[in-house]
Amino acid sequence: MKRTTLLLLLLGFGLNQSQAQTVPNPAIDQWWSSPGIVGTALLIALVSLVAIVIIGSRLSALFQGLQNRAESRKKETLKSELVNWEEEDLDWILEKRKAAKKYRLTGTELTGKGNSDDSRGLIAKVTRDPENPLVDEKKRETLRMETPKPLRKLMIWYLGAAVFWLVFGTLVGQYVGMKFIWPEMDQISWLSFGRLRPVHTNTVFWGWASMAMVGLGYFVISRTSNTGIFSYSLAKIAWYLMNSAVVLGNFLLMSGVNNGGGEYREYIWPVALLFASGLILTFFNYYKTVAARKISEIYISNWYLLGGLIWTITLVVIGYLPSFQDGLGETVIQGYYMHQGVGMWFMTFTLGLIYYYLPTSLNKPIYSYSLGVLAFWTQMLFYTLIGTHHFVFSPLPWWLQTVAIVFSAGMFIPVVSGTTNFLMTMKGSWSAISKSYVLPFFLVGVVFYFVGSAQGSLQAFRLTNFIWHFTDFNVAHSHMTMYGIITFILWACMYAILPKVTGKEPPALGVGIHFWLAFVGLFAYMISLMTGGTQRGLSWIEGESFINSVILMQPFWVWRAIGGSMMFVSHLIFAYNFYEMAKKEKPLPHKIPAPLSSVHA
């Protein structure tokens, strides 16, 4: 009897937990005071604060420049006054100058038991912080890294293709964004929203971000392993495979041939197989290079790069296996694939790039190797089970939704660990923001890494999910992460390494315009869709019709188009900057020397 009762209880518990929803919808009377909403507002305020800090540093540099000019004018005035001085006064000044030239430091001015003495004003700054960097990244890069010509050429191949796909993909995105304002721009099936939207997302995912990551990664694994790339031929074959997949996949998408609507896997399986083959060759090439390293340790960057490749190859296989493509299994796999693609490919690989390019840009080591290891393993643990938070209140089992929410909250551990590591590495270098064109990109990327990831965890909560799901808020969140984190970090890495590899600097003004157009455009894009998406979700909960929510969104879509336009223009400027860094030097013409004149014969 007891056994039967126990079995019935277990069966009842299992049936209850397998239901899609076991509790009523959350009450929204006090929605603005919920932790998810308040937390998101604070995170957006943090981004605003960072913008104020960067603007303040730039203005400070401007005022310092104006002050230096004023001092220069004073010096010129003093010079003109010296003309009228008496000869005895000038002789006295010259004697003082001669004595100053012979002065030598004893080495004990700031040491010993006596008071520190710097009577001649030779010390500009004193610090007791042993971690203080001796050299910050300057406006112009003077260090030239000796890079093998095949590696330099390979990087230009990958990064050049990435820049092309960035411009093309965001051009499509710009056109799609305009359709929200002018939905009847065209009547051509190839240019319809349903066909162009996946062209935009897949191009910037697999064309821009993936190609840029792999190209930058080749330099990292070679440099940190102190050895050459295992096979340049394999790298070139992978380049052709991945670019062919993007070209063929986009052509099929615009023709109406797709994978049935699975977001970010709209490419049909033969096209995905091409891209996956390129990833497999890349992983093999990376692995063999790291295995042949000439140092004993494996640097933390390589953990992330190899881990991201392994997870993505596994992800593509699972996402395209036909046995998982039926019924609710399709929904579970879609959440898994969609979130893993962002977290275990783009985010994991890009974090690996930060662990190399950020310290080298600052001429100092990463703050904590242990924090990097903690962030790596907790990301591997928590990120693998959070995809279902995209389907809260869906027919999926309630326990599976709860697990996704709990693991989403667990993502605070790797995010806080990684952010702390990066910001502490940057400690002591904040003044360089006004001098460097690399550090502002890194700072925005790192801050968005915390803000975007933490906001995603807050958005997984049931109340916030109830309000924001299926609204434009999710579009803002995806751009906050894929653009604010991934793209800004990739730009920072490219600006950091290309001048050292090629010896050519981008125009400083062009980099500044690129940064501010992209940053301000993203902010306008993000805030408008977050605000409109919140209002839209609340209108649905109140029972208003769908068409009313479309009318409600019109002014926010205008701001979306304005922000998107600024972002697209910044990409054009970035493409020009890349050309300036990567272009070949024209050989100097061989001049035939003029014959010697017979006058001297």
TrEMBL record:
Q: Which residues form the signal peptide?
A: 1-20
Q: Does the keyword Cytoplasm apply?
A: no
Taking the record's annotation, the residue ranges forming a coiled coil are none
Q: Which Pfam families would you find in this protein's record?
A: COX1
Top-level taxon of origin: Bacteria
Is the Signal keyword given for this protein?
Answer: yes
- The portions of this protein that span the membrane are 36-59, 154-176, 203-221, 233-255, 267-287, 299-322, 342-359, 366-386, 398-416, 437-460, 480-498, 510-530, 557-579
Domain Cytochrome oxidase subunit I profile per the UniProt entry, residue ranges: 351-601
InterPro entries the UniProt entry points to: Cyt_c_oxase-like_su1_dom, Cyt_c_oxase-like_su1_sf, Cyt_C_Oxase_1
Q: Which UniProt keywords apply?
A: Electron transport, Membrane, Respiratory chain, Signal, Transmembrane, Transmembrane helix, Transport
Q: What is this protein called?
A: Cbb3-type cytochrome c oxidase subunit I
The organism named in the record is Algoriphagus aestuariicola
